[in-house]
């Protein structure tokens, strides 16, 4: 059972409250709404916020919160070095918010010596049968053994083997302890919708209580921008269909080619990244559309401010993910964890989604947020259907954002449900 009273005792009285947000990733910290918005809300309640990230996370200068890069080249380094920062007894009144399993394991190590509360805000549902999937399988054994053999004559493999062994030694005991004792310090879990909530509690059974907070934004802003028009010199009377995200092998180029079957009042803007050069292959196939000004490509990850302005200049948002196996719970039940979906809606843009994913057709069409399609061949019709009744979407998307996607309302409600003592300090400060 969660010793809730004992855990939250440090939040009473005059002690300064501090929230430590633990993010292990390879992206810029400002591309995680769940992190940045959590920091903003807690800071507004007078809580000091520090974000601890690994060396692969980019940190922007404009970030108004303390953001500390934890040194080390491996996940094991991050786990141990985070724990070392809080090994003493001097940090009273601290709550940890972990976003990935690295953060949970770091706080498990901290809780071997002292009792501190941890809130888990799940970013991805990828930790089911964690030890078996990561370590107790033939693929890991073959990779590790092969790497160890190659390291005998190829020095480049020695660092990989050392890092893998370090993770193995550090991680396995902590995972076992997390599953055994996690209910004594994990005060709750936050997940994006009810379907994902069901999966999270089976993934991490030690999380006794949960609350729902979509992967959304602090405010809805339906003001149109001219960002893409100015960047690409697109006439202001053109209606932009916007796709943002990955374009890698298996991504159907027909999604982009669909613009050809629409009148020239519509153009397609693609802000994409590709780790296998597949984007260049698609650009070659669609070069005639790019040359004629029907398709515009830009690559690379935008900072949040630019991304927000880009979405603000769109007419319709194309929220498309590669079709997955239904056993891939993180994708098949993507729901309101989709940053693309929540960003488009927060900017008042109707969306076109792939109806394959669980609940997406019902979510989008029942709430009049756009259209769901089964294949790229249906995209052009979906665009025309939305265009025909475009003005009607402003009210329905606005209502949905206020009711379902207001991060401040959802997050404070979740905290008041899971940790009611935390946000009371603003009233008593």
Task: Write a brief caption for the model.
Helices cover 42% and strands 16% of the residues.
Describe the structure.
The chain has 429 residues and is α/β, with parallel strands linked by helices. The chain folds into 2 domains: 4-217 and 407-428, 3-Layer(aba) Sandwich (Rossmann fold), CATH 3.40.50; 227-404, 3-Layer(aba) Sandwich (Rossmann fold), CATH 3.40.50. The chain has 20 helices and 13 strands. The chain has helices at 4-8, 33-44, 75-85, 101-110, 130-134, 138-150, 156-181, 194-203, 227-232, 254-257, 278-285, 287-291, 304-312, 329-332, 339-346, 360-366, 379-388, 392-404, 407-418, 425-428; strands at 18-23, 48-54, 66-70, 94-98, 118-121, 186-191, 210-212, 239-246, 266-273, 295-299, 316-319, 351-354, 370-373. The strands form 2 sheets. Strands 3-2-1-4-5-6-7 form a 7-stranded parallel beta sheet, sandwiched between helices. It has a 6-stranded parallel beta sheet with strand order 10-9-8-11-12-13, sandwiched between helices. Strand 1, helix 2 (33-44) and strand 2 form a beta-alpha-beta unit. Helix 3 crosses helix 4 and helix 6 packs antiparallel against helix 7 (156-181). It starts with a helix and ends with a helix.
What percentage of amino acids are in beta strands? 15-25%
The strand order across the widest sheet is 3-2-1-4-5-6-7
CATH topology of the largest domain: Rossmann fold
Quickly name the level 1 CATH class of the largest domain. Answer: Alpha Beta
Low-pLDDT runs: 1-5, 10-16
Backbone structural class: alpha/beta
**Count of β-strands:** 13
Tell me the number of structural domains.
2
**Biggest sheet overview:** 7 strands, parallel
Portion of residues within helices = 40-55%
The termini sit apart by: 31 Å
Q: Report the total helices.
A: 20
| Mean pLDDT score | 87
């Amino acid at each position: 059972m969660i010793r809730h009273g004992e855990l939250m005792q440090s939040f009473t009285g005059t002690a300064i409250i501090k929230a430590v947000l633990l993010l292990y990733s390879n992206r810029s910290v400002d591309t995680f709404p769940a992190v940045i918005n959590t920091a903003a809300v807690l800071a507004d309640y007078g809580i000091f916020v520090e974000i601890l990230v690994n060396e692969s996370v980019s940190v922007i200068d404009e970030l108004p919160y303390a953001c500390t890069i934890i040194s080390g080249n491996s996940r094991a380094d991050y786990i141990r070095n985070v724990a070392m920062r809080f090994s003493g007894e001097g940090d009273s009144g601290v709550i940890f918010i972990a976003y990935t399993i690295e953060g949970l394991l770091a706080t498990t190590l901290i809780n071997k010596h002292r009792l501190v509360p941890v809130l888990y805000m799940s970013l991805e549902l990828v930790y089911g049968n964690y030890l078996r999937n990561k370590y107790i399988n033939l693929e890991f054994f073959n990779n590790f053994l092969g790497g160890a053999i190659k390291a005998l004559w190829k020095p480049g493999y020695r660092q990989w083997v050392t890092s893998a062994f370090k993770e193995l030694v550090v991680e396995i005991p902590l995972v076992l302890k997390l599953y055994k004792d996690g209910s004594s310090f994990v005060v709750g879990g936050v997940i994006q919708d009810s379907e994902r909530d069901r999966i999270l509690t089976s993934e991490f059974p030690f999380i006794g209580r949960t609350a729902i907070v979509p992967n959304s934004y602090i405010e809805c802003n339906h003001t149109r921008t001219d960002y893409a028009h100015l960047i690409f010199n697109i006439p202001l009377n053109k209606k932009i269909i916007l796709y943002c995200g990955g374009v890698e092998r298996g991504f159907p180029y027909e999604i982009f080619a669909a613009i050809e079957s629409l009148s020239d009042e519509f153009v397609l803007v693609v802000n994409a990244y590709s780790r296998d050069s597949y984007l260049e292959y698609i650009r070659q196939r669609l070069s005639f559309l790019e040359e004629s000004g029907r398709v515009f490509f830009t690559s690379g990850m935008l900072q949040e401010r630019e991304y927000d302005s880009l979405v603000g200049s769109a007419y319709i948002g194309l929220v498309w993910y590669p079709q997955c196996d239904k056993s891939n719970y993180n994708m098949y039940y993507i729901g309101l964890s989709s940053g693309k979906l929540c960003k488009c809606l927060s900017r008042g843009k109707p969306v076109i989604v792939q109806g394959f994913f669980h609940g997406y057709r019902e979510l989008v069409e029942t709430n009049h947020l756009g259209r769901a399609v089964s294949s790229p061949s249906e995209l052009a019709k979906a665009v025309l259907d939305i265009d025909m009744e475009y003005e009607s979407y402003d009210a329905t998307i606005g209502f949905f954002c206020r009711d379902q996607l207001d991060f401040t309302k959802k997050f404070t409600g979740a905290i008041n449900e899971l940790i009611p003592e935390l946000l009371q300090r603003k009233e008593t400060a």
